[in-house]
Amino acid sequence: MSERYTASRLRTDLYRVLDRVLETGRAVEIERRGRILRIEAVEGEDRLSRLKPHPEAVRDELESLVSVDWSGEWRP
User: Alpha-carbon distance 37 to 4, whole Å?
Assistant: First the structure.
């Protein structure tokens, strides 16, 4: 069973309530204008899984970059 708050009480304790939802995994219900809203923790995807491939990126050994002559590209 989840806890139930009024919108006014939630406003007073918002960050404490959000932290408790994250810590316990238990949802919280908020009563607003005769309707019930629910705050619950949802597992998000791994941040690394959102990385997009960049085929134009250098895919060579780093040692091969050490000997590249960049003097023609450099502008003071």
Answer: 9
CA 1 to centroid of chain Cα atoms: 27
What domain range includes position 8? 1-41
32 within a domain of the structure (yes/no): yes
The pLDDT of residue 41 is 92
Cα separation, 4 vs 10, in Å, equals 9
- CATH number for the domain that contains residue 35: 3.40.1620
**How many domains does one find in the chain?**
1
Q: Measured between alpha carbons, how far is 60 from 41 in angstroms, rounded to an integer?
A: 42
33 closest CA partner among 7, 54, 11? 7
pLDDT tens-digit profile of 17-69?
999 999 999 999 999 999 999 999 988 778 888 888 887 777 777 777 777 78
